[in-house]
TrEMBL record:
Biological source species: Salix brachista
Domain of life, source organism: Eukaryota
Protein name, UniProt field: NADH:ubiquinone reductase (non-electrogenic)
GO-annotated molecular function: calcium ion binding; NADH dehydrogenase (quinone) (non-electrogenic) activity
Record keyword Nuclease present: no
Record-level GO cellular component terms: mitochondrial inner membrane; peroxisome
Localization terms from the record: Mitochondrion inner membrane; Peroxisome
Catalyzed reactions per annotation: a ubiquinone + NADH + H(+) = a ubiquinol + NAD(+); a quinone + NADH + H(+) = a quinol + NAD(+)
Main subcellular localisation: mitochondrion
Catalytic EC class: oxidoreductase
Amino acid sequence: MNGLSLFKRASRAFDDYPTLAKLIVVCTVSGGGYVAYADANSTSGAHAIAPVSEIRKKKVVVVGTGWAGTSFLKKLNNPSYDVQVISPRNYFAFTPLLPSVTCGTVEARSIVEPIRSIVRKKGVNVSYCEAECFKIDADNKKVYCRPNPDSSMNGKEEFAVDYDYLVIAMGARPNTFNTPGVVEHCNFLKEVEDAQRIRRSVIDSFEKASLPTLSDEERKRILHFVVVGGGPTGVEFAAELHDFVNDDLVKLYPAAKDFVQITLLEAADHILNMFDKRITDFAEKKFHRDGIDVKLGSMVVKVSDKEISTKVRGNGGEITAIPYGMVVWSTGIGTHPVIRNFMQQIGQTNRRALATDEWLRVEGCNSIYALGDCATINQRKVMEDIAAIFKKADKDNSGTLTVKEFQEVIDDICERYPQVELHLKSKKMRDIADLLKMAKADVAKEAIELNIEEFKKALSEVDSQMKNLPATAQVAAQQGTYLANCFNRMEEAEKNPEGPIRFREEGRHRFRPFRYKHFGQFAPLGGEQTAAQLPGDWVSIGQSSQWLWYSVYASKLVSWRTRVLVITDWTRRFVFGRDSSRI
């Protein structure tokens, strides 16, 4: 009744005051809208009533449901977007536990969460489509997709999806370095299906080796498990496999005990070379004690159905053929074909990943963002902008720069160019005045005054501290969270920019650039021992670190359902051992 009364009063006002300008009154009833419209130039006094058309929402297309894409979806809470998720995988997988799935320590179902369950309770309109993106058209703002073969009648119903913003978070694929035979004969460890395939293959190897018709030589070959790659994934899988064999399988297959061999091939001088040297040394010694054969400096040149050929550095280029039963290939990541084609389209050739700016925008594409393993941040160098920085800091246009003038913009400089702060720390300098003093060693700090050439000299080594971020779940998750927060505040930041000064332009950047915060890394080494490297150069190795690993990973799982299932799996393994059934 109140709504109707308001409408009548508005109508009477239009009739009584025909000189009023055009006036629109919007009444919203139970989520629907009606508009009362009056035209001052109208002589009939008629009022048209029509539905209010909703303001068009921006269409955000997210390609991928890995760490980056899922973190973005979880943190996005701005209802002004329509979100379309496209991925051939309708779930999020907690990939750090994939090595545990290969040996039955954790079940595959325990580490996955349906993507629809993750987004269904959000206040944002999110829809999901189980399909694979095979082409990105930046000019027309479209992505072209094809359904999964299992969800399509003939696998050929291709379709296009329009977007206003595109978030590319499709991860990467295993890097084979074009080594012959790798794709045909090796197992990878990137997806849940890979882990399940490896688990079946391990059990199959023990069952085959138990057949009475085989020779001892053939049993030895079948039970030779080779891991290529001494990074965290390869090392953890080798450790999990060793525990599986010695704690569980030798009890069920006692005759196979003397034939089992695990070999870890690493082309570099050490395994876990991204960790502290103390961890590297401990891991190599532990593997030696456990009987895991670690071959350093061994580069794989070919893989056949029964042999893997390696070339050892410093051995005169001699190639050695090693018989094997199963190979797991874990040597880093490569670029998806769709990403490679898109990079060629936008002129980013000869790169391993999409180049983005510090705000995760793909360079040359303002409406496309890329994060996770498929992208790398192209941090701008200080020396590229040194003249603009000098001009912006020199507020009195004197042609020289004092310490006071530089200190007024140092916060913006450190935020825009993080290598400056890293350089100060590496040189153990207390403040920026110490850095500027390098250009004029005989002048007191407060009296320092530099011209442009002296300023360049003072900052000449700053860019040496630039490093690419590692391709880890930790980085991808932080990038997804950062980008979601940017989207949540997009309109507000347009009006009130919160980023650093634009040194080459006027004003400020809308947002602060992405900054990765490292919380540490783990390397499970088997036998309930884990190596932990935490911020502050803190290293811990042993069972206490294993329990820290349990608690951290349990807390990082995406839902309470997966937490309960994983903890239940760990408990079951402690009580009953790992399941060796081939399912």
